């Protein structure tokens, strides 16, 4: 009997009691080459993820989507306008509030209309 086959049988029998893995086939071709076969392990279903949903490509020639169009024509609360302007221009929101002193100013006629 081949020496490699005896070693293979001894390893296989000794590993059978300690290992819960499926047996692998190892063949010693000669002193310089060893051939082994490892069967593919089944992948557990619990570790898999579902495929991402397919998003259909728009057939429109416009480069913007429907969501962006809706956001442009959507009526917003007037109180949110200073916040949006402040984000766009990187300033404070107080810059975009109307000045109260201009509302309180009197609209008096000049005493000389030619000035």
TrEMBL record:
It comes from the Eukaryota. Keywords: Mitochondrion, Ribonucleoprotein, Ribosomal protein, Transit peptide. It is found in: Mitochondrion. One of its GO terms (cellular component) is ribonucleoprotein complex. Pfam families: MRP-S32 (PF10210). Belongs to the mitochondrion-specific ribosomal protein mL42 family. This is Large ribosomal subunit protein mL42. It comes from Trichogramma kaykai. The lineage of its organism: Eukaryota, Metazoa, Ecdysozoa, Arthropoda, Hexapoda.
């Amino acid at each position: 009997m081949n020496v490699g086959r005896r070693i293979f049988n001894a390893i296989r029998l000794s590993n059978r009691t300690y290992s819960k893995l499926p047996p692998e086939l190892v063949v010693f071709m000669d002193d310089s080459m060893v051939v082994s076969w490892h069967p593919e392990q089944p992948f557990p279903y619990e570790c898999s993820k579902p495929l991402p949903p397919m998003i259909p490509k728009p057939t429109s020639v416009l480069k913007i989507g429907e969501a962006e169009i809706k956001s442009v024509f959507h009526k917003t609360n007037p109180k949110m306008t200073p916040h949006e302007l402040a984000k766009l221009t990187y300033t404070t929101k107080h810059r975009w509030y109307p000045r109260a002193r201009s509302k309180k100013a009197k609209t008096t006629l000049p005493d000389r209309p030619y000035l």
